[in-house]
Write a structure and sequence with these properties.
The protein is of the alpha+beta class. The chain is built from 3 helices and 5 strands. It has helices spanning 60-68, 74-86, 88-97, and strands at 7-11, 20-26, 30-34, 45-48, 52-57. The protein has a 5-stranded antiparallel β-sheet. Strand 1 and strand 2 (20-26) form a beta hairpin. Helix 1 crosses helix 2 (74-86).
Length: 98
């Protein structure tokens, strides 16, 4: 899958490797990523796409708001990633059907 706005990705390189993030923006080479805790909306991490692995389409409140271009809070980002971590298989199925 292509990494785009509202995708959930995993970092595969750097000191933050293994972490889950939402993609705020992408320009084809770089993506701005946030997790709501160490990387907040106010200061996203700019990372090369080759250092990220696609996990899922962002679902829930945070994913929908990011896709629509609405303001999203750090709390919504954290909650969305926590839901994905708790139920990754169910979330992927819901995203495909919804």
């Amino acid at each position: 899958m292509e990494i785009r706005k509202s995708s959930i990705v995993r970092s595969v390189a750097g000191h933050d490797s293994g972490g889950l993030y939402f993609v705020l923006e992408t320009d084809g080479v770089y993506a701005d990523i946030v997790n709501g805790k160490t990387r907040r909306i106010e200061k996203p991490k700019r990372k090369k796409l080759k250092h990220l692995r696609y996990e899922s389409q962002g679902c829930g409140t945070a994913g929908e708001k990011l896709r629509c271009g609405e303001a999203v809070t750090n709390k919504e980002i954290r909650r969305g990633l926590a839901e994905y971590t708790a139920y990754p298989a169910e979330k992927m199925e819901v995203c495909k059907n919804g």
